Amino acid sequence: MNLEFADLLAHFVQLLPTVYVVDDVMTELLENSVDALGVSGGSISLVSGGELRCITSIADSAADIERCQEGLQSGPGRTAYEKGERIAVTDIRQRHDLWPEFAENARRLNIAATASVPMSINGETIGVVSLYAHEPRPWSADDIVFTYLVANMATGYCVNASKRHQLQQIRSQLQESLKVRIILEQAKGITADARRTGIDEAYALIQAHAQLCNASVSAVARAIVDVGLRV
């Protein structure tokens, strides 16, 4: 692998711990990969409901062939997803035996060579990176290795974004739990003062009112604090 490829991958590794928009960074990754390999176009597709859905593509012909593959759910990308292995074809127009409709559309769009590599994590394929060339191309070992690295980078971005989203959800839930706890403590204090009773007894009164009204304890507590409900 040459220095250009190494520099490209180093750049995208540095982006991983930063805040990014998945679609934007995927498009940039794909665009740079297409340029580095000198191919005509490419696409990144993710699995949704058992089907491949293209999330970004470079070149109109790549976008068109991906729409075709989405509609058919048949083609080298789909096969790469189903088998969990790379599918590299020197001239797709000669492979009517494997994907007749896809091959015919490739001929119409002037696409010859295709290479599709699965995006996998822990044995599960979550998407596919595909590259296209207008001329027949015997994909070299370096081409395939580089495409696998791109697929791994794309997988890393997806997984990292998912984990960051999960972490944000956990933080939001913890913050909401803290707010509810504060309101409940305030409601217990208000009820204890109004009833001239202890905190535990006040909480029991709030619970009893919640059960009577078929409401949550937090909803009753909020009503006590915000609108002056007394129990």
Structure explained in plain terms:
With 231 residues, the chain is an alpha+beta fold. The protein has two domains: 3-163, Beta-Lactamase, CATH 3.30.450; 168-227, Arc Repressor Mutant, subunit A. The chain is 60% helix and 16% strand. Strands 2-1-5-4-3 form a five-stranded antiparallel sheet, sandwiched between helices. A hairpin with a 2-residue loop joins strand 4 and strand 5. Helix 1 (3-15) packs antiparallel against helix 2, helix 3 packs antiparallel against helix 5 (100-108) and helix 7 crosses helix 8 (217-227). The longest helix has 55 residues, at 141-195.
Condensed summary:
The chain is α+β, with helices and mostly antiparallel strands and 231 residues long. It has helices at 3-15, 22-37, 60-72, 76-83, 100-108, 141-195, 199-212, 217-227; strands at 41-48, 51-58, 87-89, 113-121, 124-133.
What is the element layout, followed by pairings?
Layout: H1 3-15, H2 22-37, E1 41-48, E2 51-58, H3 60-72, H4 76-83, E3 87-89, H5 100-108, E4 113-121, E5 124-133, H6 141-195, H7 199-212, H8 217-227
Antiparallel strand pairs: 1-2, 1-5, 3-4, 4-5
- Oligomerization state: single chain
CATH topology of the largest domain: Beta-Lactamase
Helix content estimate: 55-70%
Number of separate structural domains: 2
Number of strands: 5
Number of helices: 8
What's the CATH architecture name of the largest domain?
Answer: 2-Layer Sandwich
Keywords for this structure?
231 residues; alpha+beta; Beta-Lactamase; Arc Repressor Mutant, subunit A; 2 domains; five-stranded antiparallel sheet; 8 helices; 5 strands; 16% strand
